[in-house]
């Protein structure tokens, strides 16, 4: 028995190390991010760490300055050109080795990876951007935050759907359906079919359907441990 223990312990330690490395790699590859408002609230602390910042590309703000691409990242899709919603903004300079992705254009949702400079400008070495059309069936003026427990995850094309039990006024529980992007878009952002098990409590930011039903298009999902992931919704990813 001691012999098995003697040899089993190193093996267990090795397996544990491999599992930890795999988990760490997965966390690094997922698109955890900060909002523009969160970055600004961080103050000087934001300048001491590597960050990923999410927002929309302000319409008409993209400029080329030598080898750099300069643009304005805004907090709300309304500021991206879809409407007139107020919100925070952040100047971004992209100086990565690769050209901006073909999806990088006015009103696209973008994720900038880099550091905040002392001048208050975000210096990105990588950017991601998705489609720029806001879905017609959802209303940018009905921005909302839903806190609830997952009852079902539909991992299917053309859109991932999260069913969420949300407790409203008077303790009444209402089931919402939150639409994300295609499974491939969700995977690029670090979300898998196992990320949202039944019963998990999450917070989803998004926009309600124009018809006032309990449907929304999701922008991002926040977990209890502080992680935020984009949902990959077309027009919001």
What does this structure look like?
The chain is 19% helix and 39% strand. The protein is an alpha+beta fold and 237 residues long. Strand 3 (63-65) and strand 4 (68-74) form a beta hairpin. It is globular and about 55 Å long. The relative contact order is 0.14. Residues 9-31 have low confidence and may be disordered.
Mean pLDDT: 81
Q: How large a portion of the residues is in β-strands, by DSSP E?
A: 35-45%
Shape: globular
Beta strands, count: 13
Please identify the structural class as seen in this structure.
alpha+beta
Number of helices: 4
Strand order of the largest sheet: 2-4-5-7-6
SSE diagram, text form:
Blueprint: H1 2-29, E1 34-35, H2 36-42, E2 51-57, E3 63-65, E4 68-74, H3 78-82, E5 89-94, E6 109-116, E7 122-129, E8 138-154, E9 161-167, E10 173-179, H4 183-188, E11 201-209, E12 215-222, E13 228-230
Parallel strand pairs: 1-2, 5-7, 10-12
Antiparallel strand pairs: 2-4, 2-6, 3-4, 4-5, 6-7, 8-9, 8-11, 9-10, 11-12, 12-13
Main attributes?
globular, alpha+beta, 4 helices, five-stranded mixed β-barrel, 13 strands, 237 residues
Concise synopsis of the structure shown:
The chain is α+β, with helices and mostly antiparallel strands and 237 residues long. Helix content is 19%, strand content 39%. The chain contains 4 helices and 13 strands.
